[in-house]
Amino acid sequence: MDPLHPAVSLLAAAHAAEQGPGNTVRIVLAASLVGAVLVAWFLLRGYGRGDDE
After folding, report:
1. Is the pTM value of this prediction over 0.85?
2. What is the maximum span of the chain, computed from C-alpha positions, in angstroms?
3. From CA 6, how far away is CA 4, in angstroms rounded?
4. CA distance 39 to 45
5. Residue 10 class from Cβ within 10 Å (0-12 exposed, 13-18 middle, 19+ buried)?
6. Per UniProt, which keywords does this protein have (predicted)?
């Protein structure tokens, strides 16, 4: 067993606790990108219908 193993695991646990809002920001960014694509599709889908009467 490596004698540094407990120290490394403690440092990794301390670093993992200090991650901050990274995952939340990624989820919000992904959801807003998907929402922007859906809104663009919804707004632009009517232009190709040929409703020129």
Report:
1. no
2. 81
3. 6
4. 10
5. exposed
6. Membrane, Transmembrane, Transmembrane helix
SS (H, E, C) 17-46: HCCCCHHHHHHHHHHHHHHHHHHHHHHHHH
Over the stretch 1-53, which tens digit does the pLDDT of each residue have? 455 666 666 666 666 556 677 888 899 999 999 999 999 999 998 776 665 55
Q: Residue type at 27?
A: I
User: Phi/psi at 41 (nearest 5 deg)?
Assistant: -65, -45
The residue type found at 19 is Q
In the block, tokens 């807003």 appear at 32
